[in-house]
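Milestone M4 deliverable, item 7.
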Amino acid sequence: MKDFNYEELRNIQRGLVKKINLKKVNFKRIKYIGAVDVSYKKRFAKGAIVIYDNHKEEIIYEFTIEKEIKFPYVPTFLSFREIPVIEELYECSKIKPQILFLDGQGILHPLGIGLASHFGVIKNLITIGVAKKRLVGDIKKLPEREMEYAPVYYEGVLKGYCLKIGKGKRFLWISPGNLITPEEALKITLKFIKNGRHILLHRADRLSKK
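Output delivered:
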């Protein structure tokens, strides 16, 4: 950990957050939607990307890579650990997604620049963060029924939504990464929730662990 200048990395995050652009999406032009996930085993990471054809309504492409990881796990610096893997997946993918789901935070992050936002900005890509845990944000009441959702605010601003996906305390924390609004990020995420899980992220997770 001592080999990394965390203040310099923090300044990179502060610069990137200024470039986040949340705007409406023309879904009629969206054909390819992707999801990525990364799993770790000692010093190595295995990343997987899944591509869904929005017109055929089916997964049409999958791809995995393995890569040595040198950056440690440090809370709020996850992007610097995972993006080298995700970027290689994205660049090597034969089909480029127009929207990409990432297993992590979007703008619902202490600095407003989670993994999905970080990657969305550097690639000028529509990204959505889907996280299993909340880092920040205020919510009046947690959803009680499956597929019920509630808005999440941070510093008085709508940043995303909490979606209940199953019995007990099973929630997803959804927020825009880049080039999409919180409302639209929720809308398209709901399309891929089946049997209590995000089907694209679940598939990417399974592939990354094979």
